[in-house]
Design brief:
By secondary structure, the protein is mainly alpha-helical. It contains 7 helices and 2 strands; from the N terminus they run H-H-E-H-H-E-H-H-H.
């Protein structure tokens, strides 16, 4: 296991070329997820749901939707995907039901700010943990989520 300082140095660089012959062990997935879901949030409320997949078929579908349809860098090319999303392990943070979270909020805080803060803390901790375990990581925010969900429902 890398030291915290070494893990930070490797975490600052996004991985784009993945070794699919070396999957993330289930023990390591469990460690990474445990760290991610136990990070602090405002009033310990649940602002996100975490989707975790090491299933190559599901991950491939996610990769095919790793585009930003509003960015000409992606849409001007016939085939172009963000290779950061072609990882053997994918973790996706998605919003919870905003109305339920807001209904339980006595302070009436801004949901969106707390969601992004919570995801940032959780994903940063997950990345740091994965790098400390010897893995490389990448972030990808270019996901055509609506089309991904439509494909998954088929």
């Amino acid at each position: 296991m890398l030291s915290l300082t070494e893990a930070v140095k490797t975490a600052e660089r996004c991985q784009r070329n993945w070794d699919h012959s070396n999957p993330v062990s289930s023990t390591d997935i469990q460690k990474i997820v445990e760290v991610a879901i136990t990070m602090p949030t405002k009033q310990n409320r649940k602002f996100y749901e975490l989707i975790v997949s090491s299933n190559p078929e599901f991950n491939k579908i996610c990769y095919t939707h790793a585009i930003d349809p509003n960015n000409p860098h992606f849409t001007d090319r016939e085939i172009h995907r963000n290779t950061q999303a072609n990882a053997p392990l994918i973790m996706m943070w998605r919003t919870t039901d905003q109305t339920q979270v807001e209904a339980s909020d006595p302070f009436k805080d801004e949901y969106t700010k707390n969601y992004f803060t919570s995801v940032g803390i959780s994903s940063g901790a997950a990345v740091l943990t994965a790098n400390a375990l010897g893995y490389r990581t990448g972030y990808c925010n270019c996901l055509d989520y609506d089309n991904l969900m439509a494909d998954l429902e088929k």
